Amino acid sequence: MKVGVAAGPLESVKADAIVVGVYAEEKRLREAAARIDRALDGQLSEVLEAERFASKPAHVTHVHTGGRVPAGRVVVVGLGKRVELTLETIRHAAAAGLRRARDLGAKSAALEVLGDRLPARSRAHAATEGALLGAYTFDRYKREKTDKRVESLTIVEPDARGRREVADGARTGEVFAEATCFARDLVNSPANDVHPTYLAQVAGEIAKEAGLGLTVFDRAECQKMGMGLFLGVAAGSEQPPKFIHLSYTPPGRRRRRVAVIGKGITFDSGGLDLKPAEGMLRMKDDMSGGAAVLAIMRALPRLAPTVEVHGLIAATENMPSGSAIRPGDVLRAMNGTTVEIGNTDAEGRLTLADALCYAREKVRADEIVDMATLTGACVVALGPSCSGLFANDQRLADRLLAAAESAGERVWQLPLFDEYREHLKSEVADFNNVGPRGGGAITAGLFLKEFAGDAPWAHLDIAGPAFVEKDTPTGPKGATGAPVRTMLCYLMSQG
Description:
It is a single chain. The chain is of the alpha/beta class. The protein folds into 2 domains: about 1-155, Leucine Aminopeptidase, subunit E, domain 1 (3-Layer(aba) Sandwich); about 180-490, Zn peptidases (Aminopeptidase), CATH 3.40.630. It has helices spanning about 30-40, 45-50, 85-105, 120-135, 165-190, 195-210, 220-225, 230-235, 275-280, 290-305, 350-365, 375-380, 395-405, 440-450, 485-490, and strands at about 1-5, 15-20, 60-65, 75-80, 110, 150-155, 215, 240-250, 255-270, 310-320, 330, 340, 365-370, 385-390, 410-415, 430, 455-460, 465-470, 480. It has an 8-stranded mixed β-sheet, sandwiched between helices. α6 (about 195-210) runs parallel beside α10 (about 290-305), α8 runs antiparallel to α11 (about 350-365) and α10 runs parallel beside α15 (about 485-490).
């Protein structure tokens, strides 16, 4: 979708549909809505009154203009109470408004910078981001594709003096949304297409287009580095593993070096500890963390943060075969730590462990953040809409929580109780890769903590929000692109 910015009254914009926001519990229409109502000879207010439109957040209706303004239709979205307006309200309203415009057959739409009170740049970012996320569809594998698509979106600021600020916000909102949709596309695609070699090819395309550094290590090279945990998981699959390292170097003096690691299990059968059929059906989404890393790295050159960023993905399948690792096997990590395999379906933490070692030893990162669809226990604890955050450094955790709040993605910090480390004891190795059922998300975090060492490190367990089973305010069911926007907010705040 092409995004542009224009200054001037919304009612004068030529488009198939214009989208305007209306506050709840206000007797009179204000600003853009009032001007449109006058241009339509009161038709807008009449429709809202007839429908008893309460202007609740993201509620939507529309009117046909009959040629009285350049746009063919006016889409009205509720913003709730003025005093309760948030950026998330704006995202949801913009998403609902653009979806309605699309469903009405609009090819071009214009959207006012919804709301007031909040900074114009932030509102423009949220409105643009919400509109693009809300209009997302995935029909790559369907022969019959919908022809209802908004092809161009204009963000309208009535005051020409604020155009630059609005343009900046719209630009970053567009980048954030495009990155999120890029990750959604990867996760929604089936595992027979999105395998480790394909992820490496995508990384190559990103590096070429965005001017990033790229190294892709094959099985033999990973073996030389001692990545026994990663290669152990990969042993059961016919698909060759790929360890992907993308790097972004900022212009000028860098402030710090950050490693972002994404779990890259392109399909998780559970290995020899095979998942049941219903548990395996959605396991194409087990590379959501890796998809997020690719999306983040693709967006960085357009955002130009002042931190050096290294994106790492240990990409493989977890499959059962005669060569697959067995329960009770002992593997050796890149840093020499030995791990007994208590369950082959706890494979993600093994691949992440070697990636953490690589981030410490090869990248020498000042701080590390990993993202992974790691445990069902986290979904039990926090539900399907919230990521769990674990960290060995509270300052890093606080920065990530602030970024999530700004991005509108739910993240909740969970503890890393030292006494639970006892649950990872092994009789024959340094650690077991699983603990008891209770507190499973915490023991998984403690396992990863061992490989982060003394580097500031945080772990985002995105098992719940990475893939949803019903439509959300900002997208259809399926992949969500979490936590791309949180991480972009975080990296942009580190300058």
